[in-house]
Design brief:
With 112 residues, the chain is mainly alpha-helical. It has a domain of 68 residues: Multidrug-efflux Transporter Regulator, Chain: A, Domain 2 (Orthogonal Bundle), CATH 1.10.1660.10. The protein is 65% helix and 4% strand. Strands 1-2 form a two-stranded antiparallel sheet. Helix 1 packs across helix 2 and helix 3 packs across helix 4. The longest helix has 39 residues. It starts with 14 loop residues before the first helix and ends with a helix.
């Protein structure tokens, strides 16, 4: 029986790591933090932000609305205020569809 090592996930991510995930400047993450109350990273004793997976998911939601869907900040705030779960559900569905599409494209490449 082969032993498969589980990938270790970090509990906290720095603002630089979060910015890198979304390919944006750390200043944009700080700005969104000041604009959206769903982004509330902890701060360590030095005052450095420590983002959890939940914080990153919330940044992903805002990124989706503002950068991918073209919402204004006010529009994104209203969407989140009115039905944040619907927004998250749609994002999960889109991510699922992208994953399936990626798999199908890869499969097509292997078949040709």
């Amino acid at each position: 029986m082969a032993y498969k090592e589980k990938e270790i996930e970090k509990l906290y991510y720095s603002i630089g790591e979060v910015a890198e995930i979304f390919n944006v400047a750390p200043s944009l993450i700080r700005f969104w933090e000041s604009e959206f109350d769903i982004i509330k990273p902890k701060k360590n004793r030095k005052g450095n932000r420590q983002f959890t997976k939940e914080d990153i998911d919330n940044v992903r939601t805002i990124f989706h609305l503002v950068k991918e869907k073209g919402f204004t900040l006010q529009g994104a705030k209203e969407m989140l205020r009115n039905d944040s779960q619907a927004v998250k559900d749609k994002m999960e569905m889109l991510e699922s569809l992208r994953s399936v599409r990626g798999f199908l494209v890869e499969l097509r490449e292997k078949l040709h």
